[in-house]
Write a structure and sequence with these properties.
Length: 669
């Protein structure tokens, strides 16, 4: 009996398998597979699913090339394709079916979506039946027929200007002369034009030849060689040469040139890597993009949004339909807090030196200037940078391309007012207490070995006021030791050390080096050596509590950005702020003060000089960085921080005092 039941079960299973084996394939399964391949853009395998008639109409290479060309040209992304559910579906036993599907994608001209039907045919191959796709051009877009083309075009937005606080342009869309060569109009000996033109343009003859040998060039075409400023008198020499022409062309221009190069930055043609990273954001290989400075920081705002149109054209190149269209949105201007006058004034004082400087409004935190020297002319990037000039900048030991104002340096004695503030707040420093110090060197005890703290002036008795006036390293080394590492480090962090400056421009964070700080390093840190590092802008900001009742101001670069002017409230008490401010006034007014050369009865200043010595090893003489921070005390409106490298044989920080003084004379009336 058991065997009888087993036979029945086996018979039922066999019947089911036979029934399943004889059941015809479902077109839905084939279509789903085809649509999955389509979404993956696996056009080779899609082609293999076409029926023989479709493959006669279009070759595999042409099929793949067509899809890739169209999708690449329209910048198709986020492709989503699926079969559409059918309502009241009827059983269809025919060998031809048509099933609906939907396509969605994002393109350079906006989203495109459509619903269409896919024709399918049941064919017999190798003793089996399977469904094949009946392809035609309407599957790419329903409006397409054989012979039609897809046209995609973009409209680049007009780039916004970068403006100073008065609305004057720092970077704007102006005009330049574009120098062109028409190859067929060159003399028989083309070097009669190319060699002198290369000299006029600051290029090599080989660079000009390379432009004339580009694959798209034809004898009758005008080939762009380089741009020149409209006020450059050499343009007349250039166009006088046989075969050379010029035309005015819209060009990005930088009005302050070298004086603001690292601040404004420059734009340049988008490269392949950038284009890959920016996929889906409307950039094309013909676009330009911010490469450095504010041009890069505010790229999204300055650039705007490209417009685009995707059309179907018939064989006569007539428009059949518009698949997608997006209007262009021009870029917005960026109005900065920068003063062109202050920027130029500081650059003229720094020019010829290696250094950097910042200027802020000490009551609002507005950034008035960010300056570097040496510098470069950013206009050369949009005019067409020659290989010679590129190599000159790259091989210059003073590195004119380096953006020094965003980097950090040892602040030297400019940190002493900050050390003072921390000591006063922690009550480890008594401003009236006189320290008896003999000689110009000092060490805590013999555990320091041969290392001694060195000061400039031998002042036997020193209190806080004298220590700031004479800039006494020994006094502030002792002040840091009396605080101890924990309180000193905590105090510096109150002044923003270790934090990102709250500003759009990417500045380096000021550092303390508290990890593994030795007692000697703590002492050195008290007067701005050790491992202390600050940017010029942060040094200036660190002085704002002395002018604002103890509040540390936030730097502001975008004039239209809303927000508090205060970065950190009540960093020090108003009493501490006043005491330090009064002493900084004496650093300038006292004949013994290190900044006395900046004294002006009609324009009183307060400030602090500083010299930081950079040594590879202890005991050797190193390169010196000179610093000077100053602000006007009557209705404070300008605070300048300047740093110059290599002042060891130029009077140290005293070298900077007349330079900063001149900036105030030129800008405070």
């Amino acid at each position: 009996m058991k065997n009888f039941y087993k036979m029945i079960v086996l018979a039922v299973l066999c019947f089911g398998l036979l029934t399943a084996c004889s059941e015809p394939p479902k077109p839905e399964n084939t279509l789903n597979k085809y649509l999955t391949l389509w979404q993956k853009q696996d056009f080779n395998k899609m082609y293999e699913m076409l029926d023989s008639e479709s493959q006669k109409q279009i070759s595999k290479d042409e099929f793949v090339k067509r899809y890739k060309g169209i999708y690449g040209g329209i910048e198709a992304t986020n492709l989503a394709i699926k079969m559409k559910a059918q309502k009241n579906k009827k059983k269809d036993d025919s060998e031809n079916v048509s099933l609906p599907y939907t396509v969605k994608m994002d393109t350079l001209a906006g989203p495109i979506s459509y619903t269409h039907k896919m024709g399918m045919k049941l064919v017999e191959e190798k003793d089996s039946k399977e469904w094949k796709i009946e392809w035609n051009p309407s599957h790419i877009f329903p409006e397409m027929k054989e012979g039609d083309k897809v046209s995609a075009s973009t409209i680049s937005p007009t780039r916004g200007a970068i403006l100073d606080r008065e609305g004057n342009p720092l970077a704007f869309n102006g005009e330049a002369y574009e120098v062109l060569i028409v190859p067929q109009e060159l003399p028989v000996n083309k070097n009669k034009t190319i060699v002198p033109l290369a000299k006029i343009l600051g290029m090599s003859p080989e660079e000009i030849e390379a432009k004339l040998n580009q694959s798209w060039v034809k004898p009758e075409y005008s080939v762009p060689i380089k741009k020149m400023a409209t006020d450059d008198p050499k343009i007349h020499e250039a166009v006088a040469l046989e075969g050379v022409k010029s035309q005015k062309k819209e060009t990005r221009l930088y009005t302050l040139k070298e004086a603001a190069a690292h601040l404004t930055g420059y734009i340049g043609p988008v490269n392949a890597e950038e284009l890959k990273n920016l996929k889906g954001k409307g950039y094309s290989s013909q676009d330009w993009i911010g490469k450095a400075g504010l041009e890069q920081v505010y790229e999204d705002q300055l650039r705007g949004t490209s417009g685009g149109t995707i059309k179907i054209l018939n064989s006569k190149k007539e428009e059949k339909s518009v698949l997608a269209q997006t209007d262009v949105v021009n870029g917005k201007d960026v109005k900065t807090t920068i003063s062109s006058q202050v920027q130029l004034s500081i650059y003229n004082q720094l020019k010829g030196n290696v250094g950097t400087s910042s200027a802020i409004h000490p009551k609002t935190g507005e950034v008035l200037a960010l300056v570097n020297s040496p510098s470069y002319d950013p206009n050369q990037y949009v005019f067409g940078l020659s290989n010679d000039l590129r190599n000159k900048w790259a091989n210059d030991p003073n590195n004119p391309k380096m953006n020094r104002f965003k980097y950090t340096y040892a602040p030297g004695s400019t940190l002493k007012p900050v050390t003072t503030a921390i000591g006063l707040e922690n009550k480890t420093l008594d401003p009236n207490k006189e320290f008896q110090i003999k000689g110009k060197t000092w060490q805590k005890d013999k555990s320091w070995g041969k290392y001694h703290v060195t000061r400039v002036s031998d002042v036997p008795s020193v209190n806080l006021e004298k220590a700031l006036i004479y800039s006494d390293n020994i006094y502030f080394a002792q002040a840091a030791l009396n605080l101890g590492q924990d309180k000193f480090v905590a105090g510096l962090k109150e002044f923003g050390f270790g934090e990102k400056l709250p500003i759009s421009f990417p500045f380096g964070n000021s550092t303390i080096g508290e990890e593994g700080m030795s007692e000697v390093q703590l002492a050195d840190s008290g007067y701005g050596q050790g491992k202390i590092q600050m940017s010029a802008l942060h040094v200036g900001l660190a002085y704002t509590p002395f002018i604002n009742n103890g509040n540390l101001l936030a730097p502001k670069l975008d004039q239209e950005k809303k927000g508090s002017t205060v970065w950190k409230e009540n960093v020090i008490s108003p009493e501490t702020a006043k005491l330090i401010n009064d002493d900084l006034v004496k650093v300038v007014t006292n004949p013994k003060g290190t900044a006395h050369a900046a004294a002006m009865p009609k324009l009183p200043l307060a400030g602090k000089t500083g010299t930081a010595e950079l040594k590879a090893t202890k005991g050797e003489k190193g390169k010196e960085l000179g610093w000077f921070v100053a602000y006007n005390t009557q209705n404070p409106s300008l605070l300048v921080t300047m740093m110059v490298e290599g002042v060891e044989n130029r009077g140290g920080s005293h070298y900077l005092v007349p330079k900063v003084k001149k900036v105030f004379e030129e800008n405070i009336k």
